[in-house]
Automatic annotation (TrEMBL):
Catalyzes the reversible transfer of the terminal phosphate group between ATP and AMP. Plays an important role in cellular energy homeostasis and in adenine nucleotide metabolism. Residues 160-195 form the Adenylate kinase active site lid domain. It comes from Zingiber officinale (Ginger). This is adenylate kinase. The lineage of its organism: Eukaryota, Viridiplantae, Streptophyta, Embryophyta, Tracheophyta. SUPFAM superfamilies: P-loop containing nucleoside triphosphate hydrolases (SSF52540). HAMAP family: Adenylate_kinase_Adk (MF_00235).
Length: 246
């Protein structure tokens, strides 16, 4: 921002300013919420629901990977430390990540609360997160577990085919192309992502269950876990989420 932010605001179109003011007024009546989203590998529908929850409850979306990259790019004190670790090929320490979350949730956009995505992945991280929030006098309100049967996930993921240049996606069962293996629009061949194979999925699921199940148990003891039926259609899952959060 320019000095004091004034010059920048003067350049913002009136419509955008009014829209943002109206959004903030609407948000002011919303209850604060601090949420954690836990979902297995891609395909659990977490990515579809988080923007909907973010907009509905005026929360900020904190994806730890993006935040780390932003802290490194912005050369914040924590970002500089994180970069040192990454350059050495080390994992960024839990304390650093919690510190970056701590900084992020003080921003005005996080005033109503936040959605944490991709963290905590271990019980130690969950404990550190709880300690940090306790110091601020807050706590996690709900943990949304996008539970889905491994076999259904496998069907969802291994059936995905992509048209590389346009990003159009197909699914052999749920959204097949008109001609198998060929993009409807361009007629070019479809490819399958390297990650979208049964083998890759199997190893991802194994590490997910090994690491993340204990985290779900940790929060379950606090009675804040909501088990969602992630195999349902996105619309049905949205309704489930709204019930849980209302």
């Amino acid at each position: 921002m320019a000095t004091g932010g004034k010059a920048v605001l003067e350049d913002v179109p009136s419509l955008d300013l009014m829209t943002e003011l109206l959004r903030r007024m609407k948000c002011s009546s919303k209850p604060d919420k601090r949420l954690i989203l836990i979902g297995g590998p891609p395909g659990s529908g977490k990515g579809t629901q988080s923007p909907i929850i973010k907009d509905e409850y005026c929360l900020c979306h904190l994806a730890t990977g993006d935040m780390l990259r932003a802290a490194v790019a912005g050369k914040t004190p924590l970002g500089i430390k994180a970069k040192e670790a990454m350059d050495k090929g080390d994992l960024v320490s839990d304390d650093l990540v919690v510190g970056i979350i701590d900084e992020a949730i003080k921003r005005p956009s996080c005033q109503k609360g936040f959605i944490l995505d991709g963290f905590p992945r271990t019980v130690v991280q969950a404990e550190k997160l709880d300690d940090m929030l306790a110091k601020q006098g807050t706590k996690i309100d709900k943990v949304l577990n996008f539970a889905i049967d491994d076999a259904i996930l496998e069907e969802r993921i291994t059936g995905r085919w992509i048209h590389p240049s346009s990003g159009r996606t197909y699914h052999t069962k749920f959204n097949p192309p008109k001609v198998p293996g060929v993009d409807d629009v361009s007629g070019e061949p479809l490819i399958q992502r390297k990650d979208d194979t049964a083998e890759v999925l199997k190893s991802r699921l194994e590490s997910f269950h090994r690491q993340t199940e204990p985290v779900i148990d940790y929060y379950r003891k606090k009675s804040i876990v909501a088990q969602l039926h992630a195999e349902k259609s996105p619309k049905e899952v949205t309704i489930e989420v709204q019930k849980v959060l209302s």
